[in-house]
Amino acid sequence: MGSSVEQNILVTGGAGFIGTHTVVQLLKEGFKVSIIDNLDNSVIEAVDRVRELVGPDLSNKLEFNLGDLRNKGDIEKLFSKQRKYLSNSVQLSKKGRGDASAVYGSTERSEKELGWKAKYGVDEMCRDQWNWANNNPWGYQKKL
Ligand SMILES: NC(=O)c1ccc[n+]([C@@H]2O[C@H](COP(=O)([O-])OP(=O)(O)OC[C@H]3O[C@@H](n4cnc5c(N)ncnc54)[C@H](O)[C@@H]3O)[C@@H](O)[C@H]2O)c1
Questions:
Q1: Among the four residues 26, 73, 90, 109, which has the most C-beta atoms within 10 Å?
Q2: NAD(P)-binding domain: from which residue to which, for each copy (predicted)?
Q3: Residues in contact with ligand 1 (CB, 6 Å cut-off)
Q4: Is 78 within a domain?
């Protein structure tokens, strides 16, 4: 890896057959790994076995989260731990059915890792979108 920043990988179903094998490999490759698994078709001992296989040093880079991917609360709990990278939470409008529960955006990490810095912020983005929509009420279609 080119980056000196440790990369985090989330493995869903990481206590399962494919998951545990993947996690062992990722830890050996130097990644930090978070697992989310509801243990519906696996046992926590499988994760213990992963720790045994990779040893104590790499085990420190493994985090297990008991949770169900279909459960919004479990997902929010998991990502709230990672919020150091997702520092700006923006409430765009009143939520509608099917909308994402929250939207996070931060360019801090891309600046650190890629040397890329955003030139404009949310204010400019909203202003430009508003102007464009006002000037193009039919979007990309021609006026009928
Ligand atoms: N010894 C063997 O050869 C062996 C053993 C097991 C599986 N297999 C094969 O491997 C394949 C399946 O492996 P796999 O790793 O995809 O399946 P898996 O069932 O082993 O792993 C899936 C994991 O996802 C978890 N999970 C399921 N739904 C979830 C949810 N909603 N939220 C969170 N976690 C959830 C389960 O608890 C499980 O740990 C099959 O083809 C199977 O026949 C082979």
A1: 26
A2: 10-82
A3: 13, 15-19, 36-42, 68-70
A4: no
